Amino acid sequence: MVKGITKRWVLNTLCTIVAIIVFAVVCLSFFVTTYYHSSVEQTLSGRSVELLNILSDFNSDTDSGFYSTVRDYVENFSEKENMEITVISRSGDIMVISTGFTPEGDEPMPDYELAKSSASGYGKWTGRLSTGESVTAVTRIVKNSSGNAVCAIRYASSMSAVNRLVFSAIAIFCGVGILIISLVIFSGTYFIRSIVRPVRVISDTAKKIAQGDFNAQIDKMYDDEIGDLCDSINDMARELGASERLKNDFISSVSHELRTPLTAIKGWAETMQSCGIPDKETFDKGMDIIVKESARLTGIVEELLDFSRMQNESMVLRMERLDILAEIDDVLYMLRDRAINEQKHLLYDQPEAMPAIMADKNKLKQVFINIIDNALKYTPAEGVVGIQVLHEGEVIKIVVTDTGCGIAPDDLPRVKDKFFKANQSVRGSGIGLAIADEIVSKHGGTLNIESGIGVGTTVTICIPVATE
After folding, report:
1. How do residues 263-281 score in pLDDT, each as one tens digit?
2. Domains of the chain
3. How far is CA 355 from CA 68, 391, 466, in A?
4. Which of 59, 144, 160, 382 has the highest CB neighbour count under 10 A?
């Protein structure tokens, strides 16, 4: 069954072309037929005028010399083989005929009857004789100067040769039309196959990709739009494969991140339950770990919720006028003990004052925590994490610099992508920077990262100054 692109091509293009060609053949056939038949009629009509001028001087077909004049003209007529001349008296009797034989029976002469009833005295007829021969005949009524009928002259010509010529022309037109349709079908079939076959391959490959086979690739056969589509699908498959791997890594990382605090909480809870009331030092230590790991677990869940809101584009900011220095102080207060415990230097030279900004307090604080937490995470013991706040024009810049391991040049463009982790050995879900970048963007700001292997990383956050 013809279907798809081929069906549309057959219905729309081929049918239209066939209809146009059939119409053209019909029109040309009609034109040729009309042209040749008109040519025969004009030739016969012209000849009749010639004899009409000769006989118009007679008053009657019984006048002296009329018969001899007619007979001499007919006998000396040069085209007897091409046409037949008949002179008919006023009474309707055949006086002279160029063949020399009076027709047997009653041969139809509609042109003669038409000429008698016509005011112009002219009649034309195309049809078949009783023998089956096709003829064209014209009849003119000869009138004298007084307007009285003298006789009728009839010229008839066989149409067999003309019909053969017309049939040959029509056959040629049909042959050319069939040839054109054949060429269109051949070229169209080749063209359709050059589209349908690659599309089928693309469709089969797309189904494989939809089923999870992201290694499926399409061989590029043409350097055209189809080839561009193949490249796009191949790129899509590679990107989907990379995203699938990142997703799996993300699930694995998040599972590990969730398991670690849960294990610590469960372990200390079971220890404290099984040992009864422990000494105060053990109790304080256990409760401290349970509180910290619970807070860590809450942070992971909040991060996942923020990521979900970001994906659904449902993250809502509660904007208010803020002192950015106060928010940074709060974050540094939260992280200073951790830096000391990890033997890392957290340096911050607080400026005296900064313009207010319009921001969501909790979301902006989450960005600062995420960036400084990352800086501490990737900075070794005795390393330095510096925070600097600058006012430049209409923006406030928060620059966080660390002396950590740095980010490889190949990984740097992707560190803000969801699920991506440049360093798999360090804890984290891989969505923190993506969330931070989204939050900063919703505040009308930018988050830029510069880094080099072994030289550390610099994160620059730009937030617009409040205009009101």
Report:
1. 777 777 777 777 666 677 7
2. 4-165 (3.30.450.20), 225-311 (1.10.287.130), 319-464 (3.30.565.10)
3. 131, 8, 7
4. 144
